[in-house]
């Protein structure tokens, strides 16, 4: 059996249509908003659950539009992605078929064979995202395995990634250029730093220490140990 292509799809400023406003829809809407996308929700208001209702009410900086009615085919106009989560499998499949004809990526919650992509069980810790997929075989096991992974990753991982991200930006400002020797040198230094320091210690890097690492490490072509950095503080 072949698997899926797991990629980090960028939704910022894209338009996502969500058909339905129940429990499954509300989880989809939260994922789209967390990824910076705009959402249009189409569902009769008497079918909204509390979670979807509050997502509509808070509006997330005008990124949520609500249409209080059933789906019409013009809802597909101009959208970049479609997610259906309705209790009407025939209509779900029709929407899936129309999206395919129009080459709009689509997820049909109640029929995997109409999906261009599946959701997975997700962990988010700041910029860190982990998704578990069972390729449609067992969503509940995906959930259970995700919880086990969640227990095993360091609590500081998200913060460490944030800090190292900042260090990488500063390094690129100091030593700009794409490709060639400068890229090779930057990448080797980053690899050495990330492998020799503990995640917990990377999470504690403040702005001053980042500058110090660059002054005393990068500029001299070495990676100081955490202990050496602490000694010279
Ligand atoms: C194919 C896929 C399409 C898609 O939704 O994208 C799909 C399809 C279907 N799910 C169904 C049922 C359940 N789904 C869940 C839960 C989740 N389902 C999710 C994803 C996916 N579900 C995609 C594949 C995921 C993968 O590859 O592993 C998760 C991971 C992510 C999310 O939804 O955001 C989320 C956990 C989130 C978390 O961990 O927090 C539970 C558990 C529960 O409710 O407690 C049950 C009941 C128990 C069970 O069946 O396991 C049915 C009805 C089956 C029937 O009628 O019997 C279908 C349709 C079908 O299979 O035909
Ligand atoms: N993929 C997954 O992870 C899962 C999928 N499902 C399936 O997903 C579907 C949705 O599940 P829930 O959110 O629990 O259902 P629900 O019954 O809570 O919500 C259905 C929603 O669809 C809306 N709706 C119905 N007809 C509509 C139309 N013509 N146009 C616009 N909106 C319409 C209703 O107003 C309501 O908001 C079900 O078919 C269920 O079997 C269920 C659990 C997990």
TrEMBL record:
Domain Siroheme synthase central: 125-151
Record GO terms (molecular function): ferrochelatase activity; precorrin-2 dehydrogenase activity
Record keywords: NAD, Oxidoreductase, Porphyrin biosynthesis
Protein name, as recorded: precorrin-2 dehydrogenase
EC number: 1.3.1.76
Pathway note: Porphyrin-containing compound metabolism; siroheme biosynthesis; sirohydrochlorin from precorrin-2: step 1/1
Enzyme type, top EC level: oxidoreductase
Organism: Lactarius akahatsu
Pfam families: NAD_binding_7 (PF13241), Sirohm_synth_C (PF14823), Sirohm_synth_M (PF14824)
């Amino acid at each position: 059996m072949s698997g899926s292509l797991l990629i980090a799809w960028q939704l910022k400023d894209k338009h996502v249509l969500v058909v339905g406003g129940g429990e499954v829809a509300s989880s989809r809407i939260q994922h789209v908003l967390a990824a910076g996308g705009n959402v249009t929700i189409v569902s009769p208001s008497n079918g909204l659950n509390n979670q979807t209702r509050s997502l509509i009410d808070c509006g997330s900086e005008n990124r949520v539009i609500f249409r209080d009615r059933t789906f019409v085919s013009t809802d597909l106009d101009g959208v970049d992605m479609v997610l259906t989560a309705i209790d009407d499998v025939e209509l779900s499949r029709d929407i899936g078929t129309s999206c395919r004809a129009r080459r709009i990526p689509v997820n049909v919650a109640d029929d995997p064979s109409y999906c261009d992509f599946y959701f997975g069980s997700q962990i988010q810790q700041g910029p860190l995202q982990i998704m578990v997929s069972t390729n449609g075989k067992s969503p509940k096991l995906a959930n259970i395995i995700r919880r086990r992974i969640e227990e095993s990753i360091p609590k500081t991982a998200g913060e460490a990634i944030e800090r190292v991200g900042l260090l990488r930006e500063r390094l690129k400002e100091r030593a700009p250029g794409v490709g060639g020797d400068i890229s090779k040198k930057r990448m080797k230094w980053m690899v050495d730093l990330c492998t020799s320091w503990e995640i917990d210690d990377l999470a504690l890097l403040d702005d001053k220490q980042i500058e110090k690492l660059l002054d005393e490490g990068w500029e001299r072509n070495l990676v100081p140990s955490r202990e050496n950095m602490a000694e010279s503080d």
